[in-house]
Amino acid sequence: MTETANRKRLLMIAAVMGIFMLTETLYMYRHYGASAFGIMAVTANLIMFVGLLTGFIGHYLCGWKTENVYLAFGIAMGLVFLIIFPIYVVPDEPVHLNTAYELSNRLMGVGTSPDGVYYRACDRTLPVTVKYTIGLFNEYYGHLFEPTGNTELILRNDGTVATMFYQYIPGALGITLGRLLNLNTLTTFLLGRLFTLACFVTLIYFAIKLLPVGKMVLMVVALTPMMLQQGMSYSYDWFLNSISILITVFTVRIMLAKKEGQPVRRAEYIVLAVLSVLLLPLKGKVYFAISLMPWILIFMPEKPMSAKYKSILKKFAYTLIVLIAVFTVYRYFAGGTLLEEPENIISFAELQGYTPQFFINKPYELIFVLKQTFFQYGMSLFSSCIGDNFGWLEINLYTPVLYMLYAALFLTAVKNRDEKSYFTGKQKAWVLACSGIAICSVFGAMLLRYSPVGWAIMGVQGRYFIPTELAVLLALRGNWITKYSKVDQYSLFIMIAAVNLTANLLIMYYS
Question: For residues 242 and 231, what is the distance between their CA atoms, to the nearest angstrom?
């Protein structure tokens, strides 16, 4: 198939998608008219239509660079998700908004209190719910045009997140601007979200621009529904995800330059060091392996391991096996207990929780816990990593849409024939190992903090794996599959179609 014929086919499919969106728009307007829900649905579909049309024309006809194409898609779909997901609906958003509001108070010179957060009196009027109907949605957007009301500060007995403040700077700036302009509650809170979305899209734009290979991989990852939802919310995950992506991008840049014998600028090492330091303390330091990953690769010796070090590793392995055997005999045949287990009451269940001492005394219990977790939550964690559930138990994407999302991500593993190789086999193994350690750290933290004895690991959500997505996909992108045609554009198109369908499914959920 010629390039011209290929473009025509893809543009024809894009036209069909556009007709679908316009039809959906007319349907919503006809059934819900000038209600807040109807206006929301029409506005969302029109934004999608304009953004997708601009992106497809720029990509397939005008030859835009990948980062510029992402701007069209990312801004459009980010705005659509901002409209569709009301304030407080994103998982844990109330406490994240409290944290951003407290930072806004600091910026405005307002005092803080250990008993809660100072809010404007008018900022307590939004309905706090995670399950919306058309009636609640109309009530929610009805606040958009109400007068500002009482701006006197009152103490609200709400908690905040004990984490690094810099994750909330964009949201706090938006809230601060809304308060300085004396805007009403909903407009002020939406402004905070808009600032966060702008920062997220900007960071991803520069990440795509700086990534020397596999740009389409990053764009597809950044357009997954879960990434978009986190990117426009008050949740600190927007920062966690974008910083992890930037660390992976600079790692690839440095490794490719070293492989080609090109000098690496000192500024790139400095930026990578700053990014690693910013990521390290986040989320209880569970992503420490992602912070260390680039430095392991950079300082990894290029020569094979010497016989001396291989001998040392063998002796260490033999010693470890002997110790495990001795422990097994002592624990299971002599009935011994090595350590006393402290009390660890899990508050939501009021039951004894797992402790490190529990697994030292009963190490094989970990196998049963992991098995139970895999069979009970494995598929849901895998699907929610890219967008299923959105943190709600009530929302599930249709299976065909999930398959489209899986297909788009799978196609990113297809490598260009002439694409430069950036990781050696050993380096890929380390990238996958560091990503695996990060994921295991997430499970380990939840195992010890939220899981009663005898239960599966509780509290783990698919979005916690997003920081490892780009690194894993780039490590898997190799010669095992080499593309013979422009698969990247099909991957992008499938992802855009899936996100479009996801947005319309969410609109239908409310109705």
Answer: 9
